[in-house]
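INTERNAL AUDIT FORM
Audit reference: QA-55
Scope: verify that the stored structure record matches its stored sequence.
Auditor: D.O.
Record contents follow.
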Amino acid sequence: MKEVHLIVVGKLKDKNIESLENDYLKRVKSPKFIIHEVKSHKENLDLEAGEVEKKLNDLGPCYPILLAENGQLFDSPKMSKWLFNLIENRSEKIVFIIGGASGHGVKIIERAKEKLSLSPLTYPHKLARLLFVEQIYRAITIQSGHPYHK
């Protein structure tokens, strides 16, 4: 079974958002969706990049994609098509990365193959994570023809 990974700098501490996130995660069956939280270093981008890089190395061959303000923008149907094209055509693990409060370290920016933006708007870290998890679920429902996306 194919896997999609999300590496997030910092831990989700809001129980309400965690509950919403878990609701979506329970619905995601295939592809397997795995979230990895790595330690935040109070806006020290080099240390945070080191944490992300260690996790990327632990995952083995991967195709890293940054969530970033200057990334590609898609509507939900186009994101679903793009995501499933990656899943079907890449041999590496698809790994999305949400950086810390100050963004991504240089090592991670250089290692990324693509950048994705959720919106031109700026969101708090915990909401960006929740929105991304929901969009993964939505992409799956679009691909499968489920009526969730209307």
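Auditor finding: record pair retrieved intact. Helices lie at 15-27, 45-59, 76-89, 106-111, 125-144.
Action required: none
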